[in-house]
């Protein structure tokens, strides 16, 4: 599905004749956020969140990733709050 979205946006940008590196970077960031949100929306319990946190690439702050997905409307405010609380608990060792 992400590949299909990428192709759609690439064609859209090409049609508008504004295809450049800045737009491609925005597009890739959007696709990454959509993919991340899909993962976050599958986390049903604290144990699932812990497993996701262990697999997290470490290149970014997981809480910031969640906040960004929430601000883009890709996850619900309730899920955002729950995930942030779970990660905070996991990191504190509770």
Q: What layout of secondary structure does this protein have?
A:
Blueprint: H1 2-15, H2 21-41, H3 46-55, H4 62-71, H5 77-92
Helix pairs in contact: 1-2, 2-4, 3-5, 4-5
Structure description:
The chain has helices at residues 2-15, 21-41, 46-55, 62-71, 77-92. With 94 residues, the chain is mainly α. The chain has one domain (2-92).
Summarize the structure.
It is built from 5 helices and no strands. With 94 residues, the protein is an all-alpha fold.
Low-confidence stretches: none
Order of helices and strands: HHHHH
Helix residue percentage: over 70%
Tally of separate domains:
1
Structural class: mainly alpha
Supply Rg: 16 Å
Strand runs, count: 0
Assess the beta-strand content as a share of residues.
Answer: under 5%
From the N-terminal CA to the C-terminal CA, the straight-line distance is 37 Å
Largest beta-sheet details: none
**Shape field:** elongated
Let me know the average pLDDT: 82
Tags for this model:
76% helix, 94 residues, mainly alpha, single chain, 5 helices, elongated
